[in-house]
Each structure stands twice: as C-alpha cells, then as structure tokens.
Amino acid sequence: MTKVLFDMARIFIRGSRFSPTGIDRVVVAYAKWLLDQPDVELQPVITVGGRLLGVPRGMLERTIGENAAFTRQRNEADGPDATWSALQQALSADQDGPSPFRARTGTGQLPARAKWHLSIAGRALLNLRPVELAPGAIYINVSHTGLDQPNVLGRLAERGVAPVVMVHDLIPIRFPEYCAPKAEGRHLRRMAEVVAHARLAIANSQTTANELSDYAALLGSSAPPTTVAPLGIEADFFGEAPDWSPVRPYFVCVGTLEARKNVAFLLSLWRRLAERNGAATPRLVLVGRRGWENESVIDHLERSDTVRRLVHEASDLSDRDLAHLMAGAAALLGPSFAEGFDLPVVEALALRTPVIASDITVHRELAGAAATLLDPLDGPGWIAAIETAARTPARGPAYAAPTWRTHFEQFAEAFRQLADSGAKP
User: How far apart are CA 352 and CA 417, in angstroms?
Assistant: First the structure.
C-alpha cells in the first residue's frame, strides 16, 4: 500500500468555474484515477504557507461526485444550453445584426454551482488537519498550485516524501511579456523547486519536457526523471457531433483572450477579410473569457464596426455544445505564440474539423501534417488559408487523439516504479 498525498487546492480555488480549463480537468482526472486505485492510501492535501494540511478523503470523493453530477445534468438536459442556442441562432441569421452575440457570464446554473463550491470549500477549510509526512509517501501535484510557496517540495524531500509534479508549460519564464506581471517570479520559484526536489516530472508534451530540461541546464542542473504523457480529451470530442448548416461559414478560436493567444492579430485579419470579401466574409466565434493584456482585443470587439458585425464572443459552453460548435466550423484557428499543450487543437482534430494554427513546436508535435501550420504573424498566409477553407468546406484527416486511459497507462508505469522503490532517494 502506497501512501499518496494528493494536492487538491486547485479544485477549491477554481471549483466554481462552470467551464473548467485544461489544468482543472487534469486535477479532476487524477483525483478520479487515484480514488480508484486499490493499492493507494489516498490523503487529499492543501498547501498553506509551504506546508501541507489534510482534508478527509470523503471530502474529495464528494467534491468529485457532485462535480460530475453538475456536468452530467448539464449534458443530459433536454435541448442545448441557452448560450449555445443563442449563438447558433446568431450564426444562422441571414444578415449580421447591429449588435454582435456576446455571452460571457454562463447560464443560470452558475450561481448554484458557485454556492455549492463555497459550501464544499468552507467545510474543507473547517476540517483541515496536520498531515503525517511518513518516509516513503508520494506527494502528487498536477496543477502548479502552491509550488511557488517557500520550499514546499524541499521540506517534503527532507522528510523522505517523494514529490511528483506535472509541468504544464514554462511560458511565464520563456515569454514573460505575454503573462501577468508577477507570473514570471512565481513560475521561476515553482520550476526551481521542481528541478531541485521532484523525484518524477510529468510533461504534457515532449515540447514541455524539452523546455524543462533546457531550463534545468540553465540552473546548472538536470531535470528530474520525466514521463511524457499527453492529456486526454473528453468523450464529447470523439465521434460525430450533430450536423447543422449555418447561413455562411464560420471559424472558431478557443482560449482565454490574452496576449499570447494572438487574438488581436486574428481580429485584424477579419477587418482585411471584410474589405476583400464584403457580404461573403465568414464569421468568427471567440470562445473564452477575457484575460489580461488584452486592450487591443477589446478595442476591436467594442469599437470596430466591422469586427462587431462579424465576430461573436462566448464562454462557459459545455463540452457537448463546444464540440457541436467546433464540428460545424470551417476550421479551428489557433494562432498562439506559445503553448504547452493546445487542447482545442487536439479536440478539433479529433472531431475531424480542419485546423489552421501557428507553426510552433508543440503544434508540430501534436498536429503535424494533420493541420495547416503558418507563421503566427504571416497575415497574407492566414488570409489565404481562411479564404480557402471558407470556399471549400472539408473534413480534416483521421486523427488518433490522446485519451485519459493512455495517459494513465503511461503515468502508472512511472508511478509504480517510484512506489516499488519505496519512494526513497
């Protein structure tokens, strides 16, 4: 029996999000996997001030169960979600209205979910208790949350606990100009802890693994043993999504509206497309919340008459409705400057929706020849690719998308080896 200290702080910090991010999904997937392992003595923990405090296992079980119930209720509801219905209606209109579709607040279920989250988090905080750091135990953190706190992994290593950490990306270190002002410092502390003390790193892509290795070399060290395990995608993105026929082609871009996503470039393209194509210009749907460093994007969305007529904005779509939206698109657009693992690109490829994306290392790794890859600042190239996709609708090539089953098969092998060694240095 292996004792595992699983850091679930991300669930409490982000639990009220109606549409979870990629990292949120990873934490939930690992929680489910660990709860199902008969040879694991699971202790959920939260990192506070660089130290671990435990919560009852039942709290994690209840949280995961109720989270799944919310998702199941939403997906099994009669008819599509109100946000998707309104967006579908806007995309089916014969003419562009004076006001674009804007939905950034989610559905009426969101307040109920937030209330549930606060209740769960409150009970967990009331039940926090000290955790015994027994030599041979394994600490697992798959969210980055808490790793910037003082010497969090170092203290564990000193007590004989083996830290296992998932590294999602090194973007705040490699591209600090695309991140919030304090993000670089936090991530430098996280990665220094990982390089110095982690016994096993899980990388979501070979690109991330290589970047971790390069960063460790800059510190005069080497990266911990690293397992590359691409993230799985949800069931709604496998198989056929319902068909529907919009009045004219549309394209989809999914992700938080922030600088590194290069959305301002995309909106500039749409102005140029409107000049070239007039009434035949395709529509663009942006799916994601408004993030930071996005003044140019907001100026386009709120002040440009051309963009306002042609670009719709939505967030908090269910997986089912996002899959439906993606499946009907002429292509998914992914013009990002930097990614650790681009989940929307993989989801679109799984649906056989054509993908036009930036020619960056991780897109070459995940998509390869299955996508059209272009320099993220090649305006003429992007316009030509978008116009071609709009004129000649097509399905993308067959694509073997990563699954959570495969992910955990890859992780389990490294985890068992660490556990069999007694998790001792």
Answer: 37
H-helix or E-strand spanning residue 356:
strand 355-358
Question: pLDDT confidence of 197, banded at 50, 70, 90?
Answer: very high
Q: Which domain holds residue 257?
A: 84-107+235-391
Whose tokens are 């690293």? That residue is: 226
Sheet holding 129-130, edge to edge: 129-130, 51-54, 40-48, 2-7, 138-141, 162-167, 200-203, 226-228
What's the N-to-C CA distance of the chain in angstroms? 18
Q: How far is 345 from 371, CA to CA, in rounded Å? A: 9
As for how many domains the chain has, the answer is 2
367-424 residue pLDDT tens: 999 999 999 999 999 999 999 999 988 899 999 999 999 999 999 999 999 998 865 5
> Is 247 contained in some domain?
yes
The residue behind tokens 């998932």 is 166
Helices and strands in the chain: count of H runs, count of E runs:
17, 15
The CATH number of whichever domain residue 297 belongs to comes to 3.40.50.2000
CA distances from 333 to 251, 354, 359 (A): 7, 9, 12
Same domain for 173 and 205, yes or no, is yes
Per-residue pLDDT band for 329 (boundaries 50, 70, 90) equals very high
pLDDT category at 67 given cuts 50, 70, 90 is confident
371 with 350, same domain: the answer is: yes
What average pLDDT is seen over the chain? Answer: 87
Q: State whether 285 and 303 are in the same domain.
A: yes
Beta strands in 138-206 (DSSP E): 138-141, 162-167, 200-203
Tell me the pTM: 0.90
Q: Cβ distance 188 to 216 under 8 Å?
A: no
